[in-house]
Amino acid sequence: MQTQLPIISVNGILGKEVSPLDRGFTYGDGVFETCRLMSGRIPLWNRHSKRLLEGCKKLLIPVSGELVQNYLSQLVALLAPQDQADAVIKIIVTRGQGGRGYRLPDEVVPTICIGIFPSAQYPKSHSTYGVNLRVCDQRLGTNSHLAGIKHLNRLEYVLARAEWADLDIADGLLLDTNENLIEATSSNIFAVKDGSLFTPDLSGAGVAGVMRGFIMEVLSAELGLGVSVKKMSICDLYLADEVFLCNSILGIWPVVKVCGAPDHVFAVGPTTIALGKLLEAKLSAMIREPLLL
Amino acid sequence: MQTQLPIISVNGILGKEVSPLDRGFTYGDGVFETCRLMSGRIPLWNRHSKRLLEGCKKLLIPVSGELVQNYLSQLVALLAPQDQADAVIKIIVTRGQGGRGYRLPDEVVPTICIGIFPSAQYPKSHSTYGVNLRVCDQRLGTNSHLAGIKHLNRLEYVLARAEWADLDIADGLLLDTNENLIEATSSNIFAVKDGSLFTPDLSGAGVAGVMRGFIMEVLSAELGLGVSVKKMSICDLYLADEVFLCNSILGIWPVVKVCGAPDHVFAVGPTTIALGKLLEAKLSAMIREPLLL
Fold this sequence. Notes:
Order of helices and strands of chain A: EEHEHHEEHEHEEEEHEHEEEH
Radius of gyration of chain A: 19 Å
Distance between the termini of chain A: 17 Å
Number of helices of chain A: 8
Shape of chain A: globular
Strand content of chain A: 25-35%
Number of strands of chain A: 14
Helix content of chain A: 25-40%
Oligomer: homodimer
């Protein structure tokens, strides 16, 4: 791929910047999506698009999914050759410009900002041999109106991610203010116990990841695995047979250690391996499909 | 004042926009201040500046207070004649540009965005005859790391403000997820009971307003009023003799009704009137001081 990344468009205009009156800037008043671009295709695009539009609906942002899709297609078409393009795509939709004050503007013209960034460079060993985590001190406040949405109010995550610099720690686990396990700073978490999957209830806090949904609704079903969403404590995680992380960019990573006093260690187990292989096969199949965008 | 408002500078450059990579835009990763400009002076500027810098410190944003002051002075100097300029000033400081992901950038160059907006046009009757409030359905999540800071993660406030359009409702009361009374969407709240002031504890949620601090530390002392910060329920408010709102722009507004089923009504009482008069005298005195900016 020859195109110099990142390339970013704002409402379809390459290189445009954002008004200081944009409510994304003034209040974090919007949502975002982070998607993987593989050989010019976006795996699970339907799920990303659905979540983006659902988030906007919950925040009362009247965005056109067709317009988002058009701007996205225009930008991806700039990558040459498109069918070999691997990258990360970030889409931000905000409530657009507004005046001073929280009141919704009378007329809303959403800002649709799309960026194409270089692929994430993760060590290959992460998906094979697993990663280490820590437990963050930062807690997530709970809010049932905002839970699950990938909105732009991310200060808790910024402060949590600022807690460690150790490159051997791949991510940090986040608990809510009631000490429920929720997720990691940039991924969702699953526990495997007696051959079934368990993942935290996100009705009070957290981001309902696209890969989490794909694992729960498609991959686990194809492997005949039970899946339970439930309130989980960090102890529930420590008692698991296997633990893994997931998101749209990294796929599935086994967790082999949660660092602490004491450390909690896990094996890279058969269920995680099977899910990872099935995901890889699905992604490979998607690459052979026609270019949709 | 002849200058057409708003005028906005970004890092000292008039009319500049914001990078779509700015972490204020991508994560709400920053803080803001809203100040009143009266005859070219900013009352309580020292308090605004202090809170801005304390917020940045808590968020690990290395901003120079001197630089903020310089950009502010440059912008205010554009108003002619400066010593008659009445307006509202909004200052936003973010962590500046960053890459994808929550990790703090290796080098941080904060974005300092300053806007001067037309004065707020509130009915004069609000400060004399009082205002009506409602209780919002939206709840504030609690987070002791973020509580008190005027940060840019304001979706809860946006959704709360979207709950009503009735022009007779001046503001909406916000409770946290534990049903503690915290504040209103754009102001702090005080109850007067037996001649003493009570205002909600903000250690878990809410914005510690500059006018709230001035009332607690200066105005109440001059009037010999006791002040208690405590966990308050909405019932504690209903049992008060007087209730008032405050912020840097509106000053002090008596609350005469919290609408609901049933409505709760309050008289415009002597303590609120005395505080309002003292504040007005203080502000008038500030206008006669030399131009500091």
